[in-house]
Each structure stands twice: as C-alpha cells, then as structure tokens.
User: Fold this.
Amino acid sequence: MKNSRNIAESLPGMALPAGVLTVLLFMWEMAVALFEIEKWILPKPTDIFLTLFEMRGTLGVHILQTLSEALLGLLIAAAAGVAIAVLIDQSKWIRSAVEPLLVLSQTIPIIALAPLLIIWFGFGMLPKVIVTALVCFFPIAINLADGFSQADRDMVKLMKTMGAGKRQLFLKLKLPASMPYFFSGLKIAGTYSVMGAVIGEWLGASKGLGVILTRSSQSFLTEKVFAVIIVIVALSLLIFAAIELLARLAMPWKYKAHKQN
Assistant:
C-alpha cells in the first residue's frame, strides 16, 4: 500500500517533464520533416528509436562493458573520496594542504589525461576504470569533507564535555550528519560515471558504447549516435536511481522528515 501510494504521489511530478519532452520530440519530428533535413545531419526521433530497436541484439555486450567500467570506477572513487575526506577532517593543516590540490586537479582536462593512461596501462579495461574514477572522485571527496565540517558545534561541545573522544565524535555525530552530503556527491559522481567510461573508450577499445559512438560518428550514422546517447542517458539515470534508493535505505530519518514537512 505504501509503495503504491508513493508512486501515485510521484506521478504528478513526473507528468510535467514527460509532457514537455513529448512536445519537444513532436516539434523535432515536424521540423525535420518540414525543412527536409538530411538524416546524416539531424535524424527524426522516430528514426532514432527505430535504429535503437534494430541495435537491440548487438548493444548488450557494449552496455555491459561500459556499465562495468562505470561501476568499478565509481566504487574506487567512492573509496578514495571517503578516505581523503576523513583525512581532511583530521586536521586543519591537512585540509589547507590537500583541498587546494583537489581543486587544482579538476583544472586538468580528463580528455588530456586519457591518452597517457592508454600509454601507461594499455588498451584494456584498467585505463577506462581509472578515467571514470578520476571523473567521479572530486564531488564525493569535497561533499563529504564539507559534511564532516558541518556537524553541529553545540553537539560537539556537549559530547566533549561528556568525555567523548575523537573516534566517538566521528562515529556518533560527524558520520551520521555527513551522510546527506556523501550521497549528494555520490549522485553527482554516479551521473558522471558512464560519461567517464565512454571518454576512456573513445581513445582505444574493442567494445563499449564509446566505441559505437566513435565508429558511428566517423561513418556519419547520426541516428546511431543519438541512439547510443539515449542508452548512455538511461544508464546514468539507472545509476542515479540506484544511489537514491541506497540513500533512502541508509537515511530513512531524512526522508521521513521531508514527508512530515
């Protein structure tokens, strides 16, 4: 009953964007037909979905490859992000030393690093996983570090007066308080993960959605490019939804408070 009620409550919120998307697709379809735009420049949405249907038999292995790279990279990024955030929280000196380096690392284009990773680690799965981890690492580390620093100061003082040590402060106060920040960063990273895997595949791979994108664009098969983009979006939304579900399981109190408000 609760699940059906939640679905019913979410339907009005889903109807508006679905309606807008339908109108945009209809306008796109009509504009391509009216102006007689060549398929290799801009295909009709119906052509794109037809191509996607025709590709259904060959897409599976490529989806599995890209999804594996994305999830592995996301897991590594999450582990590294948590470790760095905990390290930053230990000392103001460490925060001052590490945080600027984290920001500086984001000024380096991943697309420029990817060829180096191919040279160092070859054309296998490893460089794609590293690219994905590099793309996903920053939002997790920064959000979680901010979450640790946002713990209630009065509660910190109260627990210290009651004899709580650093470990107890961290486990009983800072960690629960930082969970919303962690999952916010993880959601951002999750939406980036598939893109990171595809970027890695652009530069050298035998299978994966990035390989299909490259080959299709070079052959001017624009409808295939759009079809693969739809799959990438769907995978990103799937990962986002999985993280949202995990957040609801890990922080039931937060979502109960939202419902009451």
Summary: The mean pLDDT is 86. The chain has eleven helices and no strands.
